[in-house]
């Protein structure tokens, strides 16, 4: 390196950890930045030094250009790597870095600005003869992007139709419209969301290509005229237009198609004078036609699958290109071997519409094994807060072929231990095991077609035997704790001088109750009754919070962790959180709704659509809360009159906070 000796990583979590590891491998000194919420985060501990940015909200810390630049200056860094997310695609930040004399590890500000706007990017790609999706972008003078013009042009293009925010990404400000009568409301809704998320309500329209796959091409360019592609990634498994699973190579791309898509991607970056890492995203139609969607002017979350099949370190390439070096390899020297699949582990509950989850990580044990890579930035005991993205880690599996990679990833997810915060692990395992994914014949409609809400509700549902095991583990853990407290041998657990009586156990998984009766019959042996079914089982301790359960000659290992009255348990790779409500008063369980509208998670209030005295109907949206980049509408629980509003726009509220009260009649709230 000629100019780069000390790198400040302007990011957090697994992103920062990923960049820091390559910097350290290259012998570069490193600087981390952190907010109040991340004082003890792994990325802070990994760097040579760390600089405090400010309060937990991203706009007051990680998104503050002034604070990041001040940290870089005070630490003596000579380069800034933005990672991905936050300021990585902010042209003002890239320009400010250069103006302040720092090497920005990314593309020129002009390229970020151009390609960061879907409308301008599409117009430039059309001028460069890159195939684009038919639509409306107000390309000619005098054409309008106002609501009425979009409705008129939408009718001309035809349905189904996509309404897209010109700025930003991540699926926000995007709507699929099938019914002409729903177009105006979709435009207004998308414009409002885009304005709130990106500060711009500019929209474009595109024809919806059904049955298409989302296939992107990794590209790189240097300042010496070199430009290459590193193959494609298939990112078609998405929920709410956000990627969940990515793989390389794509099951739908032949060598000939790869060559054509790669050539077009390189043609695209040459047309804009690009430098550094980027991704050209295409929609691949069932007939093999492909169309430009957008460009990400940064490294992607899913870049590890490309690294595994090429054997390259893309962060190292970024650093070398930013330092003025030519690309390490020519196109002819780049080879592809094997197959890699990545899954994004997110703190969210699929059964509740992928609602983001917060809490403290009671246990975090990532899997290991041949072909397994885990990129993460979390640790046991860390608080998962509502201030940042819900993705906590990426599990990536590599194999000589696709099926080996798929099986290794599925096994890694079964081995993963994460207690304290609900994740999408069970959902990912379901996707990996689904025939549509196994066959490779899937598209961007996979989640909607194969995991509808009713399927998500029953994913990981415990069988009768599973329920018996969970009840016995809870009972046994209580008995062992009692033995330890009383100072007697744990082998006497369950002993009784008379006939052992069954003990009722009631657990709640957040959706339903599990009722069982547990009767000790011998040390570490129990009869458990679930309804009319009796299950005989024995437990054998394997160490701290690990037991082996034997039922009818079949042994199964169980990992668990207690947190007060909550049992976190992993059985056959399915993690469940169950609350012990055996002794809860019936009046609490059966209490009717009191009209109080509570926040479902920690978050920030971004909209209040009601006021005291307003008459509302059940289902009316009263408040909108944002957490982990997701908006949640809080609706009136009953018909009535609003008698209290306890929040204002911008307020940060904890989970269960009463944001408003709706009373059947106009009377003061208690």
Could you characterize what this model shows?
The structure is a single chain. The protein is α+β, with helices and mostly antiparallel strands. It has 18 helices and 39 strands. Helix 4 runs antiparallel to helix 5, helix 7 packs across helix 8 (183-198) and helix 12 (402-415) runs antiparallel to helix 13. It starts with 5 loop residues before the first strand and ends in a 7-residue tail after the last strand.
Average pLDDT rating: 92
**Number of individual domains:** 6
Summarize the amount of helix as a percent range.
25-40%
Radius of gyration: 27 Å
Query: If helices are DSSP runs of H or I spanning 4 or more residues, what is the number of helices?
Result: 18
What is the CATH superfamily classification of the largest domain? ATP-grasp fold, B domain
Output the structural class.
alpha+beta
Domain Lipoyl-binding: 587-663
Domain Biotin carboxylation: 3-452
Keywords: ATP-binding, Biotin, Ligase, Nucleotide-binding
Pfam families: Biotin_carb_C, Biotin_carb_N, Biotin_lipoyl, BT_MCC_alpha, CPSase_L_D2
Identify the notable features of this structure and list them briefly:
globular, eight-stranded antiparallel β-sheet, alpha+beta, 6 domains, disordered C terminus, D-amino Acid Aminotransferase, Chain A, domain 1, eight-stranded antiparallel β-barrel, 27% helix, Dna Ligase, domain 1, 18 helices, 670 residues, Rossmann fold
């Amino acid at each position: 390196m000629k100019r780069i000796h000390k790198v400040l990583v302007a990011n957090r979590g697994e992103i920062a950890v990923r960049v820091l590891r390559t910097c350290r491998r290259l012998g570069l000194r490193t600087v981390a930045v952190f907010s109040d919420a991340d004082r003890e985060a792994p990325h802070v501990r990994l760097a040579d030094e760390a600089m405090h940015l400010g309060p937990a909200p991203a706009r007051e810390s990680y998104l503050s250009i002034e604070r990041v630049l001040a940290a870089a200056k005070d630490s003596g860094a000579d380069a800034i790597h933005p990672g991905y997310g936050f300021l990585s695609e902010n042209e003002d930040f890239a320009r400010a870095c250069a103006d302040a004399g720092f090497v920005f590890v990314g593309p020129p500000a002009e390229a970020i600005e151009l390609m960061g706007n879907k409308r301008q990017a599409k117009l430039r790609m059309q001028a460069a003869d890159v195939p684009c999706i038919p639509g409306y972008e107000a390309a000619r003078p005098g054409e309008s992007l106002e609501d009425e013009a979009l409705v008129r042009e939408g009718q001309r293009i035809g349905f189904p139709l996509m309404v897209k925010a010109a700025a930003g990404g991540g699926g926000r400000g995007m709507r699929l419209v099938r019914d002409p009568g729903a177009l105006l409301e979709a435009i207004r809704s998308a414009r409002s969301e885009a304005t709130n998320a990106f500060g711009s309500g500019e929209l474009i329209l595109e024809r919806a290509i059904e049955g298409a796959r989302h296939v992107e091409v990794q590209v790189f360019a240097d300042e010496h005229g070199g430009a290459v592609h590193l193959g494609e990634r298939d990112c078609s498994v998405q929920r709410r237009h956000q990627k969940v699973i990515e793989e390389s190579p794509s099951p739908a791309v032949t060598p000939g198609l790869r060559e054509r898509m790669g050539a077009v991607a390189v043609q695209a970056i040459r047309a804009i004078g690009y430098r550094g890492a980027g991704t050209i995203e295409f929609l691949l139609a069932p007939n093999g036609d492909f169309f430009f969607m957008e460009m990400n002017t940064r490294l992607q979350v899913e870049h590890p699958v490309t690294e595994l099949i090429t054997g390259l370190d893309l962060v190292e390439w970024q650093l070398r290109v930013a330092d003025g070096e030519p690309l390490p390899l020519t196109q002819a020297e780049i080879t592809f071997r094997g197959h890699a699949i990545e899954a994004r582990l997110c703190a969210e509950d699929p059964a509740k519409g992928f609602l983001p989850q917060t809490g403290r990580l009671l246990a975090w044990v990532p899997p290991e094994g041949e072909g397994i890579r885990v990129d993460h930035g979390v640790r046991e005991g860390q608080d998962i807060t509502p201030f940042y993205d819900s993705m906590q880690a990426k599990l990536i599996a590599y194999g000589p072929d696709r099926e080996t990679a798929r099986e290794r990833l599925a096994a890694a997810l079964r081995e993963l231990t994460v207690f304290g915060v609900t994740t999408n692990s069970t959902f990912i395992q379901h996707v990996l095991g689904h025939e549509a994914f196994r066959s490779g014949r899937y598209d961007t409609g996979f989640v909607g077609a194969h995991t509808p809400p009713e399927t998500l509700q029953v994913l990981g549902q415990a069988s009768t035997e599973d329920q018996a095991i969970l009840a016995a583990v809870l009972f046994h853990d209580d008995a062992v704790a009692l033995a330890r407290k009383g100072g007697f041998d744990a082998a006497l657990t369950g002993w009784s001088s008379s006939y052992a009586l069954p003990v009722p156990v009631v657990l709640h998984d957040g959706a339903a109750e599990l009722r069982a009766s547990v009767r000790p019959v011998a040390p570490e042996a129990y009869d458990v009754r679930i309804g009319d079914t009796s299950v005989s089982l024995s437990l054998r301790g394997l160490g701290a919070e690990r037991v082996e359960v034997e039922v009818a000659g079949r042994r199964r290992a169980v990992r668990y962790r207690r947190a007060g009255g909550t049992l976190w348990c992993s059985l056959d790779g399915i993690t469940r959180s169950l609350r012990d409500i055996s002794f809860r008063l019936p009046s609490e369980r059966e209490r009717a709704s009191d009209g109080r509208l509570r926040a479902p998670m920690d978050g920030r209030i971004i909209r209040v659509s009601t006021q005291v005295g307003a008459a509302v109907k059940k289902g009316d949206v009263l408040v909108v809360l944002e957490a982990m980049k997701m908006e949640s509408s809080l609706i009136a629980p009953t018909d009535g009159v609003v008698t209290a509003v306890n929040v204002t726009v911008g307020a940060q509220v904890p989970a269960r906070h009463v944001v408003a009260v709706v009373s059947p009649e106009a009377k003061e709230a208690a």
